[in-house]
Amino acid sequence: MLARRGSRDYGSILLGSADESGFAQRVRIQTLLTTSIVVANLVGAIVAAALAAVGIPEPTVFTAELWWVNFIVVPVYILAAFVIGIGWGTVLGVHVLRWVIRDEVPTKRDARRTMRLPWRLSLVQGLLWSGAAVMLTIMYGIVDPQLIPKTLFVVGLSGVVVVAISYLFIDFTLRPVVADLISAGFHRRKRTGVKSRAVVSWMVGSAIPIIGILLVVAFGVARDETSKLDLFVGVTVLGLTALFTGLLLTLLSSMSITGPIRSVRAGMNRVRAGDLDNADLVVYDGTELGDLQVGFNSMVTGLRERERMRDLFGRHVGHEVAEAALSSDPELGGTERVAAALFVDVIGSTTLAAQRRPTEVVEILNKFFAVIVRAVEDKHGLVNKFEGDAVLAIFGAPIELDDPAGAALAAARRIVADLAVEVPELSAGVGVSYGSVVAGNVGAIERFEYTVIGDPVNESARLSELAKRDPASPLAAGRAVDAADPAEARRWRRQETLSLRGRTAETIVYAAAVGEETTTAHTTPGEKAPGETAAG
User: Fold this and answer.
1) Pick from 412, 409, 405, 425: nearest CA to 346
2) Closest to 263 measured CA to CA, from 252, 271, 251
3) Is the peptide bond before 398 cis (omega within 30 degrees of 0)?
4) Where do the DSSP E strands lie in 75-222?
5) How confident is the model at residue 98 (pLDDT cuts 50, 70, 90)?
6) CA atoms within 13 A on the CB side of 482
7) In the prediction, which pLDDT does 5 show?
8) Distance of CA 62 to CAs 69, 147, 219, 351, Å?
9) Who has greater pLDDT, 359 or 503?
10) Residue 284's closest CA among 275, 272, 292?
11) Is the pTM of this model over 0.85?
């Protein structure tokens, strides 16, 4: 069988799952085809017997002159018809479905013959019942010419019922095969749509029995020997036949409608649950309902692509930024926010690139970035930029945090500790600052990015350079430590006050000893730490 995606079915438990092995599916289809033909002919035989015995009691076929027809010819023909019908249908089905048995890709000729198979198998049943109509009409007519119209009507009506039931049964059974054809690009012609199925069901299940009732009434009125009881019995039997065949055909027709609808509903439930990977449907119907299944699959493909783009977008700019961009119309410009900036810069990246192969450098950098991303996202920050071998992370924009300074300081300590264990090949300087920034979209209307601009960003970058003197200890600006939660602030100690490169204002520098749980070295902004030197 052709490859199928997902754990989907064909709208009925009788047809199994799309994940079923090819051999098991072929056995299932052959069993259902044989059963369908047998059931359809049994229904036809019961209808014929009921009509012949009591549905149209006069003229009767149960006479002494016709015993050999009733008890020898009819049973032998029924048995022979069953054997011939099943054998002929099996040979025809195997011949047409050779591409399925051999697990081959179907050709146009295979597709055309397979699509016609329900009609051809139904035609076989129609020919057998036509043969019965001709043979029995001749045999009964020789004995009593008045039996000719009765025989033609009884056998003809039963044969039409058999053909209709056979077609609906066979069409239902071949859903897995039709699904393979549709997935291979072959589509059934829309001449037998939902409306056509409904009309056929009505004609065979209701219209023809009603016509039979009218004919029985007409014959009863025309024949003086027909009693009211015979007329009542005939009408009653035909009415019950209409009820039974109408119900059966309506159920079969409704199964062909509810199956695709039920599969679409199941797919919608999977989409609602977020399971887009297994939401695709097996398209097995060649009517408008098949178009509905195709449309649903197209929708799922679009949703899956949209989620993929959303995920990629979030990986590039951060999931919070992506969600904000998707939920509104992004514009150039930004808003002023109070946030913390964390800057991480690799030490000796030039030497690293010179001593190792490019693939090794990329592998090490990816391990380095993974440590930073994990630490930042655990503290609900945003990795804003990967700048070569440096990283800028923001805490407090675009998502507001209760303690952005404390989150940035905690993330800095964790980054230094994790890098020493997970990426010993690299060391980096880590700096943290805090203050007012402008957060928003910067660039041109055709191409822009979300970023933050402000003094804290520059200060954190300069602090990361200063931290390269001792990469085991991240550095932070005094205003970041002052703004942090006291529990976090106690983990930092004051080092010095100096003017960083490119800045006019002095920066009070704090350092944290990684792994140190508590310190009491945190001082107020106006207080100097032991050994502090002022630098201009």
Assistant:
1) 425
2) 271
3) yes
4) none
5) confident
6) 13
7) 41
8) 10, 11, 19, 109
9) 359
10) 292
11) no
- Judge whether residue 440 has pLDDT over 60: yes
Question: For residue 5, which of 183, 258, 269 has the smallest C-alpha distance?
Answer: 183
**Cβ partners under 8 Å of residue 469, min gap 6:** none
Average pLDDT over residues 337-346: 94
CA 254 to CA 12: how far, in whole Å?
Answer: 12
Let me know: does 321 contact 450? Beta carbons within 8 Å: yes
Tell me the C-alpha distance between 20 and 113, whole Å. Answer: 24
- pLDDT of 424 higher than 60: yes
Two structure tokens written together for 94: 């195997």
**CA dist 322 to 300, 441, 449, 450, Å?**
21, 12, 11, 10
How far, in Å, are 9, 17, 268, 406, 469 from residue 264 at the CA level?
A: 11, 15, 6, 50, 64
Q: Which pLDDT does position 436 carry in this prediction?
A: 92
Distant-in-sequence contacts of 262-271, Cβ < 8 A, 24+ apart: 262/11, 263/8, 263/9, 263/10, 263/11, 263/293, 264/292, 264/293, 264/296, 267/8, 267/296, 267/300, 268/296, 271/300, 271/303
- What mean pLDDT value characterizes the chain? 78
Q: Are 124 and 85 in contact (CB under 8 A)?
A: yes
pLDDT number for residue 523? 44
Write the single-letter amino acid at 337.
R
Collapsed DSSP state (helix, strand, coil) of residue 103: coil
Give the angle 263-265-267 at the CA atoms, nearest 5°.
Answer: 70
| Three state DSSP letters for 514-528 | CCCCCCCCCCCCCCC
> Residues in the chain, how many?
536
Does residue 529 surpass a pLDDT of 70?
no
For residue 85, give every residue at least 6 positions away whose Cβ sits within 8 Å of its Cβ, in sequence order, or none. 37, 41, 124, 125, 128
CA–CA dist 348, 358 (Å, integer): 15
Tokens 């990426």, located at residue: 423
Residue 217 corresponds to which tokens in the numbers above?
A: 């009434």
Query: Region 312-332: what's the mean pLDDT?
Result: 56
Contact 183, 283 (CB under 8 A): yes
Burial class (CB in 10 A: 0-12, 13-18, 19+), 82: middle
Whether 50 and 194 have beta carbons less than 8 Å apart is answered as no
Integer Cα distance of 243 and 157 in angstroms:
14
Residue 343 burial class via C-beta count within 10 angstroms: exposed 0-12, middle 13-18, buried 19 and up: buried
How high is the pLDDT of residue 382? 87
**CA 443 to chain CA mean position, Å:** 39
Kindly give, in sequence order, each residue whose CB lies less than 8 Å from that of residue 124, ignoring residues fewer than 6 positions away.
Answer: 85, 88, 89, 92
Query: What is the per-residue DSSP string for 234-274?
Result: HHHHHHHHHHHHHHHHHHHHHHHHHHHHHHHHHHHHHHHTT
Tokens of 317: 């700019």
Q: Which two tokens stand for residue 173?
A: 């059974």
Beta-carbon contacts of 216 under 8 Å, excluding residues fewer than 6 positions away, are: 55, 56, 231, 234, 235, 238
Which token pair is 172? Answer: 């239902």
Bridge partners of 395, per DSSP, are: 340
